[in-house]
Design goal:
Keywords: Cell membrane, Membrane, Transmembrane, Transmembrane helix, Transport. This protein is α/β, with parallel strands linked by helices and about 900 residues long. About 55% of the residues lie in helices and about 15% in strands. It has a 3-stranded antiparallel β-sheet, sandwiched between helices. Strands 8-5-9 form a 3-stranded antiparallel β-sheet, with helices on one face.
């Protein structure tokens, strides 16, 4: 039989879908993610014990006193195990997936019950959905939607759908046909026959189907932890991969409590919604002779009142508690300003250690962090899609070569932070006569013919099977047992306790070499290849999203001693306490956070100024350099402990406010020409703190692709190339008068060119449009301007000096400014920015958009970490 390339066809179909229907997948992801966030905000946002009380009231309403008490005890136990947030995340996933599944499954089951052709067509589809291994559903979920909540919800819906459809169809088909015929005989319409006869009688069976949907949803949500769905699934997955028996038991108990609660409540719900169920419940209660109070169930109104009261109390406490949240770190230590950074890691020791190290560092720097444990495949896929920002455990160029080759176009290598590493086979030191890979030949029986490996997806496993065994003639004699890193370490530990021979895959660095007395088997033939480097890999564009973090990661480096001591500290802290282990390690390595993640100004970046606490009132008019310099100084002053206010004004009111002392300082006085009238009028009540940029210049500019036009003289005779137009700005601007009255006349351009008055924004829009179309255009511009940082432009030379001399941009303050702010006065007198610095700052602010000027200036400061120490030095 010829080889059927079914798998290749599927991959081609998936590639096509990824290339052409991304917008659909993004829309689905947005909707499902929004639903999950909403439910999780409700379930995870309140006081745990009050929410446990709400769950208990629901149990009281549905089942009685004893189930209510057990419910409260069960959820209280989850809280005491510090798994409340994870349990609520899992419950949120179950709720979202189950609701969507039921909304689809019940109508589909009704349709199948009323149409035999639909039933026949659905049956094989449901068979496939129900019998396909659950893990398979995660693959397309991750490929189409990335890692996170959405693939978990999608896979859960598909997996949990069949019983909902089948039980609904079965329930309706089991309704006595004579009852249906009787209803029809009395003239009941098909719609009313369904709603008033079939559905009420089929409700117990349908509710049983809904119960199974919820149970299957819960089981699949746990599996979804492998795709980064979070919650208890992630905890269980971490316990499995790291062989943490304690964590597995705790997480398992939490899952069992959730499962029992959902099972009992959905089962009891039938008694409340079904007439037959209510009748049966009433009969049981009436027949009870002893402990009648245990059968008491409050009415719906009473139960609803209890739920509402507890919910209001929980909400009130949550609102009150939000005001008690941790105060933001002062100064430049709060670089992140709450920006979310998502990290992922493979459960390898150096990956765990470095990830939780950066989690702690980033949180100290004011970022909000998220961490997801994944296998290598979903991890690289998630980083490539941008669902995960970066991961710190890429072994290159060998171990993770396949993943790098597949996703390199969507990834950014931030460099190596550890290396060289080494891959090896290792045996305990008590195994005599085995010192080299060559010594393994003929010794297979000693090791039961097994080499204990790690995850099958790991690159070193491929190298071992395809190269190392072959190179040393070990094929056939040894079987490489794929397991997991934790399983391999457990087998090594068990063998050492029994003094039994064992050979395992290991690598350096690894804490096992510090814990056990092991021998690395020599590789005289170099089959393992050269040592690798451990890299940090981020998604494309990460450096733009978080420039400070990207820079820190590019400079990140740990020695073998540092890494192994960090790993051991985390091992000592225990599972679930990794960050505590990191904090303990950082306490033993003071100053390391400032070295790995220097804040603006280095170690002194967060130091307070001598006048910290004073309020500086700043003003500006909406010129780009004024906006840039003002928000730059607002950030720097707040870093130094000052308080600030910022007001936008026109030049007249701004100079008046400074002269009257209502404002303290502004950074955009163009002297001696542009603002001459204001200076002459108010100079007796102002202080000139000096120039921070200059000389400025007025000019005509063209895109660099316009050949042969390098000077104002070159414009003569070239009017047709530019449609006879020079694109200007506001007609009231001084430079427009100079252009019309002097520049055109000086270079003989009158009559050939029309100066089009518009606005600064219209001029920039025309420039941008022309550049996109590669069309010639000549515009009025000036230096400094962010357009020179964004576009490749030529300033047309002015050999005749028609534009006049350039000006200086000064910082001007109120008269008594030096007396009120002596420290700041010194800083401002020394303030200076180069053209490149100012242009890049303006471009960053343009990217951030209106209303985000302060945050944009902060990003620029993050990318230029020495600026605070240079412009506002403290303690020098």
């Amino acid at each position: 039989m010829p080889r059927l390339s079914f798998g290749a066809w599927v991959e081609d179909a998936v590639d096509w879908l990824q290339s052409n229907l991304t917008w659909i997948f993004d829309a689905i992801k947005t909707v499902l993610g929004g639903m999950y966030d909403g439910v999780n905000a409700v379930l995870g946002g309140g006081e745990p014990l009050l929410l446990a009380g709400i769950f208990a009231v629901i149990a009281f309403w549905l089942r009685g006193v004893i189930p209510a008490v057990l419910t409260f005890a069960g959820f209280a136990l989850i809280d005491s195990l510090a798994l409340w947030d994870e349990a609520m995340a899992t419950l949120s996933l179950v709720v979202v997936a189950a609701v969507i599944t039921i909304v689809i499954a019940v109508p589909t089951g009704i349709w199948a019950a009323r149409n035999n052709r639909v039933s026949a067509a659905l049956r094989p589809v449901l068979d496939v959905m129900q019998t396909m291994p659950a893990f398979v559903y995660l693959i397309p979920g991750v490929m189409f939607f990335g890692v996170g909540v959405t693939p978990g919800v999608i896979a859960t819906i598909v997996f949990a759908m069949p019983p909902g459809v089948r039980m609904t169809e079965l329930g309706i088909r089991q309704v006595d046909g004579e009852l249906v015929e009787a209803a029809e005989a009395f003239g009941t319409t098909p719609k009313h026959t369904l709603t008033r006869v079939q559905l009420p009688l089929a409700l117990p069976t349908i509710m049983a189907g809904i119960n199974q949907v919820i149970m299957l949803a819960l089981s699949m949500v746990v599996i979804g932890g492998m795709a980064g769905a979070g919650g208890l699934g992630e905890k269980v997955y971490a316990a499995i991969t790291q062989l943490q028996v304690g964590l597995a038991a705790e997480s398992g108990i939490a899952v069992v409590i959730l499962a029992m609660y959902l099972d009992r409540m959905t089962g009891a719900l039938n008694e409340r919604v079904s007439p037959l169920g209510r009748r049966a419940a009433a009969k049981v209660a009436a027949g009870a002779r002893r402990l009648k109070f245990t059968h008491y169930k409050p009415g719906t109104a009473v139960a609803m009142t209890g739920v509402v009261v507890l919910a209001l109390v929980a909400g009130g406490l949550n609102i009150a508690g939000s005001g008690d949240s941790k105060a933001e770190e002062a100064g430049s230590a709060n670089v992140g300003q709450g920006q979310k950074i998502n990290m992922g890691y493979i459960p390898w020791d150096e990956g765990i250690a470095s990830t939780f190290l950066w989690k702690e560092i980033l949180e100290q720097r004011g970022y909000e962090t998220g961490i997801t444990q994944l296998d290598a495949g979903p991890l690289y896929s998630g980083v490539a899609r941008g669902d995960i920002d970066f991961q710190t455990d890429s072994w290159l160029p060998t171990t993770h070569k396949d993943y790098w080759d597949k996703y390199s176009g969507q990834l950014e290598d931030l460099g190596s932070w550890y290396g060289p590493t080494s891959l090896e086979l290792t045996v305990p030191s008590y195994v005599e006569g085995i010192d080299s890979l060559e010594d393994l030949k003929g010794q297979g029986k000693k090791f039961d013919g097994k080499i204990i490996g790690i995850e099958a997806s790991a690159g070193m496993m491929g190298t071992l099977n395809k190269k190392v065994l072959k190179e040393y003639g070990l094929e056939g004699e040894y079987e490489v047992v794929s397991s997991s890193t934790s399983s391999m370490l457990a087998e090594l530990n068990a063998s050492i306790k029994k003094k039994e021979p064992v050979v395992v895959t290991l690598w350096s660095p690894h804490w096992a070499y510090g814990k056990h007395d092991l021998k690395k088997l020599k590789d005289p033939k170099g089959a393992w290849g050269k040592g690798e480097e451990v890299h940090t890999v981020a998604h494309k564009g990460f450096a733009k999203k978080a420039p400070a973090v990207a820079k820190w990661l590019k400079d990140f480096e740990l020695s073998e001693k540092q890494l192994t001591s960090l790993e051991n500290e985390i091992q000592n802290a225990g599972q679930g306490q990794e960050q505590d282990g990191v904090r303990t390690w950082l306490e033993k390595n003071p100053g390391l956070v400032d070295k790995l993640a220097p804040v603006p100004g280095g170690a002194g970046g967060s130091q307070k100024g001598k006048d910290a606490g004073k309020t500086v009132d700043m003003g500006y008019f909406p010129w780009d350099e004024a906006i840039a310099s003002t928000y730059l100084w607002q950030n720097m002053l707040e870093d130094r402990g000052y308080k600030t206010t910022v007001k936008q004004l026109d030049p007249g009111p701004l100079y008046t406010g400074l002269a009257q002392g209502q404002l303290d300082v502004q950074f955009d006085s163009w002297l001696p020409t542009t603002h001459k009238d204001y200076w002459d009028r108010y100079k007796e009540n102002l202080t000139d703190l000096g120039s921070w940029y200059g000389p400025t210049s007025l000019e005509l500019s063209v895109p660099s692709y316009v050949e042969g036009i390098d000077s104002l003289e070159d414009l003569k005779g070239q009017g047709k190339k530019f449609n006879g137009k020079i694109i200007g700005i506001e007609s009231s601007a001084g430079m427009m008068g100079t252009l019309n009255k002097k520049v055109l006349k000086e270079y003989g351009l009158e009559g050939e060119y029309e100066v089009v008055s518009s606005s600064t924004s219209s001029m920039l829009a025309e420039l941008n449009r022309s550049i996109k179309k590669k069309e010639p255009v000549v515009v009025t511009l000036w230096s400094p301007h962010w357009a020179y940082g964004k576009h490749d432009l030529k300033k047309l030379k002015d050999p005749k000096g028609a534009w006049g001399k350039g000006e200086q941009i000064h910082t001007v303050a109120k008269k008594d400014f030096a007396k009120d702010f002596p420290e700041l006065t010194g800083w401002l007198k020394d303030f200076e920015l180069s053209e490149a610095q100012l242009a890049s700052l303006e471009v960053e602010i343009q990217k951030g958009g209106a209303g985000k000027e302060k945050e944009s200036a902060r990003r620029w400061m993050d990318a230029n970490p020495d600026v605070v120490a240079k412009l506002a030095p403290v303690g020098g």
